[in-house]
Amino acid sequence: MKDVIIIGAGPCGLSAAMECQRQGLSSLIIEKNFIVHSIYLYPTSMQFFSTTALLEIGGVPFTSPNDKPFRHEALVYYRRAAEQHGLEIAAYEEALSVERNEDGSFTVHTVNKRGERQSRQAAHVVISTGYFDQPNMIGIPGEELPKVTHYFGEAHPYTGMKVTVIGGSNSAVDAALELIRVGASVDMVYRGASISDNIKPWVRPIFESMVTKGLITLHLESRVTEITPSSVIVTRHTGETSELDNDFVLAMTGFRPSRALLSSAGVLMDDALDKPSFNPATMESNIPGLYVAGVIASGRNANEVFIETGRGHGKLIADHIVSQKLK
Ligand SMILES: Cc1cc2nc3c(=O)[nH]c(=O)nc-3n(C[C@H](O)[C@H](O)[C@H](O)COP(=O)(O)OP(=O)(O)OC[C@H]3O[C@@H](n4cnc5c(N)ncnc54)[C@H](O)[C@@H]3O)c2cc1C
Questions:
Q1: Atom in ligand 1 nearest the alpha carbon of residue 33
Q2: Closest residue by CA, ligand 1 atom 9
Q3: What residue's CA is closest to ligand 1, atom 3?
Q4: CA torsion, points 291, 294, 297, 300, in degrees to nearest 10?
Q5: Which CATH number applies to 2-133+255-326: 3.30.930.10, 3.80.10.10, 3.50.50.60, 3.90.76.10?
Q6: Ligand 1 atom closest to 258 (CA)
Q7: Is the pTM value of this prediction over 0.85?
């Protein structure tokens, strides 16, 4: 039986495994896809807003010619860091539920890509399943059409197409800028009175100049209220509606964590904040021996935990497990 099973091989789960290792605890990571799957899903040419130093885990230096690294550099970095630490990772194995045994240890029920079910035992469990699997759905007619996606990889497939980008955050702005480079005609629809204050400062002036030049049509204080196979219906805050001719919709509306595993183990949720109950000093949930790490610990605003902050959760967890063992 392992000391710790960590569910999710994102940067925060990997960091937790490395910290457990440093403190002499054995661990196994269960990952339903593959290592840093969320980063793999980022737009292909995405540049981090964090510097390399703030993305480092397990004391492994992240070197790059760029102050802020690109997605492909982060994929290599996290892969190498995991390799260097010799982490044990069960890839393509999904955790379905977590059960607390009578003696206080845990059974994690999983299924692998061949459909084989397993019951894995550990003295402690860390849930670090992130938030990238569950897009925030808008809940409008037509959202299920194949022309709509919540994930933007790269602009090339949209060459010369009419694309509506929904949202006003960094992902929406980055997508809009990439799209005009391949000759797409871009409408951007955002409910706010201006795009987000958090837009990367080096990107904002470029975006504003593209709007001024008329290469991106920005519809502020507006919502897409229906999607049809050939158009989107946009409703202004005044109630006035218009129909835009459209081939594709990129709904850059963010993501939110799935709490299913936490609920399966009996972790309490603060319904108002949509946040699991845990002690921020140890990351232990209301279930003794069961911890949260990374963005799964955040509330409704999933952006309150980043790699920068979530990578430190593993140390709090390992410190607590070791201190309990010494008692
Ligand atoms: C475009 C973009 C840019 C970003 N830039 C930055 C930045 O510059 N700096 C920064 O600090 N943060 C940035 N972030 C945020 C950062 O990506 C997240 O905070 C980070 O990925 C959270 O790490 P995590 O380990 O908690 O979860 P994740 O990275 O989401 O990893 C969770 C893992 O759990 C796995 N999983 C899920 N469910 C199960 C299950 N049931 N069983 C087994 N495995 C499961 C998933 O496959 C995934 O691999 C950015 C995010 C986006 C979308």
A1: 47
A2: 50
A3: 48
A4: -160
A5: 3.50.50.60
A6: 38
A7: yes
